[in-house]
Batch of 2 targets.
Target 1
Amino acid sequence: MPRTHEPEDGWGAIIVRFRLYVAGNMPNSRRAVANLRKFCIDHIAGRYTLEIIDVYEVPERALEDKVMLTPLLSVETPHGIKRIAGDLSDRASLAAAIDAGSLG
Amino acid sequence: MRKTATGIRGFDDLASGGLPEGQTTLVSGAAGAGKTVFALETLVHGARDLGEPGIFVCFEEDPAHLQRSALSFDWGLDAIPETDLWFLDAQSDLDMGRSGNVDISGLLAVLQAKVLQMGAKRIVFDAVDMLLREIADPNIVRREVYRLRDWLLKMKLTAIITAKVFNTTSAQSGQPSMEFIEFMVDCSILMGHQILEGVFQRNLRITKYRGSPHQENETPFVVGAKGIDVAFMHGMEKPHASVSSERLSTGHGQLDDMLNGGYIRGASILMTGYPGTAKTTFCAYFLLAACLRGEKSLFVSFVSREDEIVRNLQSVSIDLQPHIDSGLLRMVSTRALRGSAETHMLMIRTLAHEHGATCVVTDPLSALSQSGSPTINGPYVAERLIDWAKSEGITVMCTSRLDDAEGADEASPTQISTIADTWIHLSYDLALGERNRRFSIIKSRGTSHTNQLREFVLSDQGVTFRDVYVGAGEMLVGSQRWGRERSDELALREQEAAADRETARLNGDISKLEGGIALLMAQLETKRAEAATLTERTDEQVSDTEQTRDKMRDLRGG
């Protein structure tokens, strides 16, 4: 759920915090990791953080964070969190999610 | 293939044992059909009764809300610990975006951990159509459903997947097609409802059950306080409570004599008759006897209110009130209009169970047949009631009105009368401008019974049977009987009077003769006396003469 708040301290140069939930070595998950990495290098190098969580290894995190579909990308910007499910092959929606956050 | 019980009344019988163990069952139906209740009840039964922990995955409803609603069933849901029954909130996140291909690995990872942790044996995916809608792409949907199925098989879980079906085709409504799921599962159940003649009736149908013979017909069910109750009548396979030979008093001494002691315990008694023929009175006698034995009994009336019934019976010297007050007798009245035959059937069973009744009266049973869908469920429901009572060892008495009056062909077998053990028919005999009450035992299994009609009188003292009157080879009742009795009596008196007269006359003759004899005897005596006197005198004369001669000789002598 998006929550809006004023940019808090600690963001600085970072404009987005990614948390990517993957399902081990599943094809979709591999693609998601690859796609995200490429996107970040291409567009927001040095301005993001990335945490990768394997739902198979830490299922309790998946439960806690309500991760039913994988891969699941949580995009946290100073203005809120947006979640995207899928292998991130659609760059447009990924960009939109980040932009929507950073525009605030 | 092994089966595992759902614990749902009637269903396990319908499915000859339950659901396929370790396999997936699809339960589909429109919204509100009862899919969630079915699935949840199965899970609860496993967790609470069979030591099989279960997981309930909610795709549509908030689990907390579901659990709160489910408290209205008396399953003891809140007493089941989370380690035995666990709910997962898998509702879709409406704000979530999509980018490319997804799979359900996250879900399976979470579930896998839980299954291993709990040792879960059963699992439900409720409203899986919501998940599939979220996935959207039909190819992905198909792939993920197979992934799910494979996972379930691997984990050896007995699973229920519920899904809504819609009337429109999936293409029109935009819903993912469910048909392939049907092909994929081993067992498929369709739940629905219909409205027949204004009455709402739920039903379900096992549309598929691989490797198992199953009932293919639509079977009615109700949702009551105990959950789902499926109206399945299990023919003759199910063993009834052991056959008893104990006799229960009918509540009326004369009737007990007619029935070799009374009704057999666990038997079914059908009492038919036109309205006003005293059916309820005989039911009351039966209940009275039960209460006097200290047994709990139940009276369900579809006709009158409890207080009216009690009052009416009091006018014929049957007082049920003290037994109602003591708690032995439970009286319930309801109108048959308000629900389906199945609903009433369920109500009767529930009431009987709650009360612990061993004797049950339904007045009239025909109310069940007339409500609901008469053409399909009517007599079927009645048979089930009697079947149920027998399996519980409950002695059940049902009344039934006849649609036609006097002269009804008692020999024509209605469905109910065929299976009832005892069939008593009450009627009026119309003759000489008056009605006389008749009581007839048409049949009574296990009892040699009088074949005769018995006349009875219903007064403020209750029922009194009259002795059978057989005059000149025909049985008479009522004033015909009275008339004939009377004329017979008169004839007898006439005979006696005539005999008296005759006796008197003979006595007169005898007297006369005796008198005559006496007279002759007197004359005889007189004559004899005369004769005796004459002889005496003659003797005297002779002796006199001799004496004189002797004397003269003496004087002349000389």
Note: The interface with chain A takes residues 88-90, 92-93, 95-107, 109-110, 112-114, 131, 134-135 of chain B (CB under 8 Å).
Target 2
Amino acid sequence: MSLRNLATDDLGRILNDDIGGFAVAIEIIDPLGLSLPFKGLSTDIHQTIDPETGVTVSGRSASVSVFIRDLQVAGFQIPHRVMQEEERPWQVLFLDSSGAEHHFIVRESMPDRTIGCLVLTLEAYVV
Amino acid sequence: MTLQSLINKRDSFEIIRDQIAAILATEIMNQRALAVSQSLNPDDWGLRVFSERASPVESFPDKTEDSTPVANVWFDSINFIDAGSNVMERQKAEGSFNIDVYGFGRSRAAGTGHDAGDKTAALQAQRAIRLIRNILMAAENTYLGLRGLVGGRRFQSITSMQPQQDANNIFHVVGARLNLVVNFNEFSPQTEPVELEGVSAQVFRQETGEVIVSASYDYT
């Protein structure tokens, strides 16, 4: 097995390890309303540092990282931002460390097809 | 020689800044009441008014559930105009006051589609601009309720802006700045007069109509 395939497999294990790792259950809902469970890494933090100025900026940022292969096996295309208001957006739900559920939609989709990692930056959503 | 009186009054620019905020708050309350009287949603005329606050966007969710647009009135600068001023007690001034508005938007499901949060934020900010411009430029507020102190007001510019926040913020906030220029006078402390001598006089009108002044005082 090549190093790249090894790295991809390792990534899959890391993103799905909710026992000994940081992975959590992530629910992804496509614009047609089909909801499927996945596992991956999630972030939901308040304050960040502007990388260009080094200034602390306030704001809530959330994102998830999922294994692209898991989406393909489930039959999902790569989630992306839906601009047309006539359509439902791609939705992402996960629990925070306190057990509270948070509902987001996909703001930006950043697939890394080299290693198979999809990072989705999220924005708040009201159902 | 030092000033003999304590400087314990607000300058005109402070009075005007507070008056701008007071006018906005009062008129918004009235607009909401008018909306109710016409069976319209008063939230469409909502605006939270602050004055000289550094970070009003902090009041947006997820700190509270109130997503009403926010306006922050703050003093920017003054240009003093020599023509029309005097060296003793009055300077003619042109003050610049900024009214920063912030509209908030959160994407939400709507029928079979959704309302985009970024668009909502922009429309909210522009609605706030509409309210503020109409209120402060209304005929009733020509002198900002300070006739005698304020000579006039006009908007110099309205500019959209993005508040300083993380580009990946899960909420959308769009800002705009309305720059209001106000003409007014600034006054300065005067020398306390010292009484040299008291003179009293009485003024009479004689039957002939002649006006007579009667005074009694010592002189050398």
Note: The mean pLDDT of chain A is 92.
